[in-house]
Amino acid sequence: MQERNNIFYDLEGPVSSKGNAQAVCKKYVKDGGKVFPVISRYDDLLTLANKEGHEPGDTLGLIVPFLVEAGVTEDDIRTVSAKAGLVQGIREFFIELQEEGCIVWIISTSYEQHALSIVKRAGVPPERVYCTKFPLDQLRKEVNKADLTLVREVRERAAELYIDDLDLGDRDKEILTFLTPFYWEKLPQITLGQAMAKVTVMGGRRKVRALQEAIRASGGFYLSDALIVVDSITDWRMAQVVEAAGGIALAWNANWYVLPYASCGVAAVDARAVRPLFKAWREGGRSAVREFVESAPQPEDLEAGPYYHWLAGRDESFKQEMLKIHKKLRTTCRGKEVAKLG
């Protein structure tokens, strides 16, 4: 089917191994290596609490005050992006797909400066990219410098709240108590908050809308004919929608935030592990994917994969066992520091 010639990818994880916003914070923001995980955890907590108007991935909006305070520029983001590696085999895979007449789309939470840098190297046309628009240089001009005193104080306290295992929840109450008044009471009253409000992060429901828009741009087809490749909390709503429609939500080296919503999983070092699954999809749809996945042998290289598993309809205990494999390969590909984020 012509519709199944389209494949939709998240960027950070399935295409590029490192997290750009985290790397930018670590390089340019004082104590950024501690501040970013704390803000990321706050983002996760807001998502889990289903805060109105908040979407997973809004970390990229929440860290804007600290980027402005540090004087980070759009060129700084591009500089960090230029050093980010691609997932092994992804460029070759994308080029092969496009030579066969397939259309590759990227739906990414990443800042546009990073997303466009990565897709250029990965061989995907920029017009097939949905990401976070981020006019940082203009935002910095709109901010009253007096606002930055408050940001410095918040940054210093956020760094103090950092511990190695934030996902255990030991600091959740303190993080919520401290950051909630800053973001939702103090920031809206100052120029920095007004500038920050102009940043709409591409995550959660916004990714679903981007997927629908890309489908319309491809001539229009049902979500049941969509195959997406995702890995984290910013993708779970998109995975949920596609799986419910009867398409394929493929979890790539995924974490627990998205794995329960996926149709199937692939844990591997080389991106070309998706190729046989996508071939089955194009030729026979969902049933052919399931048949391939369930008949795939164990990998010869247990450290590199690929591991294939069907997830839809399986109980939580099975998914927890698969999560161990994904976590291992996720850490191998992305590093421990990035892999443990939502």
Automatic annotation (TrEMBL):
Cited InterPro entries: HAD-like_sf, HAD_sf
Protein name listed in UniProt: Uncharacterized protein
UniProt source species: Candidatus Nealsonbacteria bacterium CG10_big_fil_rev_8_21_14_0_10_36_228
